[in-house]
Amino acid sequence: MITIQQYKPFINSLDFDFLVKKSAKEIIEHGFGYDAFLAHVLPEIKKTERAFILYEDGKPVGYEFMLIKYRKANTCFTYLLPEYRGRGLGSFLREFSFMHFWDEYDEISGPIKLKNTASIKSIEKIAKKLGLTIDKNYYLNQEGEKIEYTRLIKRPD
Question: For residue 54, how many other CB atoms are within 10 A of its CB?
Fold first, then answer.
């Protein structure tokens, strides 16, 4: 059975920490310095409780966190253990997260590697479903890979 829990200190922090350690390599590949991530980003996530943990049959298998400032949400990272990818779980988690914080932001943004076509398709599908406008820009990361920086913007009511 698939379940999602919001990160809560002292309740599921060991599961969250386990997944963060598993995702260290990918955190670094996305341009975060792992030490800087642990020192600055992780404490902010834990303080604001803007992270969700995905479970399958009680086992932590993925997470997503957001940093929200000035009504702009930066979906910094969505991670699934490799053996759970390709099943739509990342899209499910991402949409759940977007919907949960819907009233807190006007814009969602974040980088996606162009080779991560599943994530790009997921974002486009969610944007269409939620009635968001998509704005894309591109840049090269430190390794010379092309990155799509996607902004999803709420349409005025």
Answer: 27
Output phi, psi for 46, to 5 deg. -65, -35
Question: Strands, E, within 48-102: which ranges?
Answer: 51-56, 59-69, 72-80
Identify the CATH homologous superfamily for domain 2-154. Answer: Gcn5-related N-acetyltransferase (GNAT) (3.40.630.30)
Residue showing tokens 């991670």: 79
**What is the per-residue pLDDT across 56-86, written as a single tens digit (0 to 9) for each?**
999 999 988 887 777 777 766 788 999 999 8
Answer for the pair 42, 27: CB distance below 8 angstroms, yes or no.
no
Report pTM: 0.78
Query: What are the sequence ranges of the domains in the chain?
Result: 2-154
Per-residue pLDDT tens for 13-30? 888 888 888 887 777 666
